[in-house]
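ok so i was messing around last nite and threw this chain in just to see what happens. nothing serious, just curious
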Amino acid sequence: MTPGLIRPGVVAVGASLFSVSTRRVSRLCRLALACLPLAAALVPGAVWAETASEAQLRAAYLVNFLKYVEWPAANAGATICVLGRDTLAAPLATYEGRAILGREIRIRRVNQPDQLADCQEVFVPEGDEERFAGAIRNLGRQPVLTVGENARFVEQGGGVALVRVDNRLVFDVNLGALQRAGLKVSPQMLRLARDVVGGHR
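result:
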């Protein structure tokens, strides 16, 4: 097993930046969700340079989740909305206007829950989960993928928790919540998840 990696879909990161050789980056690429075959073309070169920030990896995950979740036909855009503090502004900006499965990626920052119309994915930065817990619950059965940065996020009804554990990025999936929202999750994404609650892989 590659040192520093637990399993596919888990990316080791440093305290602030991780500096790795080109060969090591290649290994990380093969194992990260952001570099799965269907998604590899979307990850800009900067993400896999010799120094890639944790923020860049988080942004890559957010974008590539769009490829592994299926929305109802009537809601098949590709807009990622950042609710609250915009901690990933710069890395997410690199994806603005790119195409994913024939859909144009749009990045929006919103400050109020009533601005979430037309969002396919809603990202809630760490520290804002409690503040917007009611908004996440109110999204309920709407076809929106919600992503937080706290492990409790999925326990509170969120769709995906993208968290850092022992200097690694992992993600948990609340399959029940996503199914209630009318979203279909790829089995490949479920296999890569650290944990799946509310359903089976």
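not much to say yet. The first strand starts at residue 11 and ends at 12.
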